[in-house]
Amino acid sequence: MSHPEEKLAGLGLKLPDVAKPVAAYVPAVRTGDLVYTSGQLPLREGTLIATGKVGGEVSAEVASECAQQCALNALAAVKAEIGDLANVKRIVKAVAFIASTPDFTGQPQVANGASELFGQVFGDAGQHARSAVGVPVLPLDAPVEVELIVEVG
Asked: Which ranges carry the Endoribonuclease L-PSP/chorismate mutase-like domain (predicted)?
């Protein structure tokens, strides 16, 4: 089995630097065999990919790309906590918050931007429980935020 970062490279992606917190928290915390990430925004090189509401200023397709970037940022936070993504035993749970208009109901499809990445990178160990929640607003007017619970070895 190839290394998770090799799989990312095969998808044309790379792990970013850990995103700097926008308030008083840390990107990830390990307790026992679990790593909990803080909510990760779709920051790429320090800038949000998009701002606004999904179903309004942000299309579902762009929001799905945002979810994928959130997932990459979450994996970067996990790696910083455990040293090597090869030590991930399972993605246990992902929670995706989608800032959306009241009539938008495609939150699960937006969250697939993150979920599908976990499957591509970790195979069966990337299959996880998930919540996809519509919310009125997210920090910095981000359209998507993702947090993870990861089992590590």
From this structure: 6-151
Separation between Cα atoms, residue 92 and residue 151, nearest integer Å: 6
* The token pair that represents 116 in the structure block: 């599908």
- Do the Cβ atoms of 125 and 150 come closer than 8 Å? no
**How much is the pTM?**
0.96
Instruction: Say if CB 121 and CB 51 are below 8 A apart.
Output: no
Q: Which residue has the tokens 């998930």?
A: 130
Tokens 């910095």 belong to which residue? 140
Q: Which domains does the chain have, with CATH numbers?
A: 4-152 (3.30.1330.40)
The tens digit of pLDDT for each residue in 72-119 reads: 999 999 999 999 999 999 999 999 999 999 999 999 999 999 999 999
- The whole-angstrom separation of Cα 52 and Cα 74 is 21
Q: What is the DSSP secondary structure assignment for residue 54, as one 8-state letter?
A: B
CB 126 within 8 A of CB 88: no
Q: Is-contact 30 37, C-beta < 8 A?
A: no
Residue closest to 66 by CA, chosen among 123, 122, 107: 107
